[in-house]
Amino acid sequence: MSSFTSELVVTPVDERRWKLVRSFTYHVGSQHSRNILTVPKGFVTDFASIPWVFWQFLPAWGRYGKAAVLHDYIYQTHIRTRLEADHLFHEAMLVGGTKAWKALIMYLAVRLCGWLAWH
Predict the structure, then answer these.
(1) What are the sequence ranges of the domains in the chain?
(2) C-alpha angle with apex 93: 115 to 49, nearest 5 degrees?
(3) CA–CA separation, 102 vs 116, rounded Å?
(4) What digits encode the pLDDT tens for the residues 22-41?
(5) Separation in Å, CA 16 to CA 7, 12, 81
(6) Based on the number of CB atoms within 10 Å of its own CB, is 3 exposed (0-12), middle (13-18) or buried (19 or more)?
(7) What pLDDT, on a 0 to 100 scale, did the predictor assign at position 56?
(8) d(CA 72, CA 76)
(9) Which segments of the chain does DSSP mark as H helices, in order?
(10) Does the CA dihedral 28-54-116-39 come out positive or negative?
(11) CA dist 49 to 5, 12, 41, 55, 83, Å?
């Protein structure tokens, strides 16, 4: 299984955005994969961009925090396709310990509505 190789360390920018204090990496596909994504120090994220009406069930932060930052980074840089970004989001949520049903709901949400943020 894939893996994150370091902790996610952030500092607040404002009430909704956070900046990475140090970079972190993610091994795509398997723990020792050479297909590695690095989110650089200084990157700014809002974690999961979930509408506030759903926060009781799916807050912006959870076990999927690293996956959300990785997804934000790919969406902002376009270093992978949107489809790859969304698949990696799903994979990374499961790696991070998100329950399968919750990861599926969040994956489907980005597949349906993510095009708004992609452009």
Answers:
(1) 3-118
(2) 40
(3) 21
(4) 998 998 987 778 889 999 99
(5) 20, 8, 26
(6) middle
(7) 64
(8) 6
(9) 65-77, 82-95, 100-113, 115-118
(10) negative
(11) 24, 16, 20, 10, 17
78 φ/ψ sector (left φ>0, alpha ψ -120 to 50, else beta): left
Report angle CA 34, 37, 39 to the nearest 5 degrees: 150
Write out the two tokens for 93.
């949520």
Identify the weakest region by mean pLDDT among 3-12, 32-41, 110-119. 3-12
Instruction: Tally DSSP H helices, then E strands, for the chain.
Output: 4, 6
- Count CB atoms within 10 A of the CB of residue 106: 23
What's at 107, amino acid-wise?
Answer: Y
Instruction: Report angle CA 87, 6, 23 to the nearest 5 degrees.
Output: 85
Dmax (CA) of the chain:
39
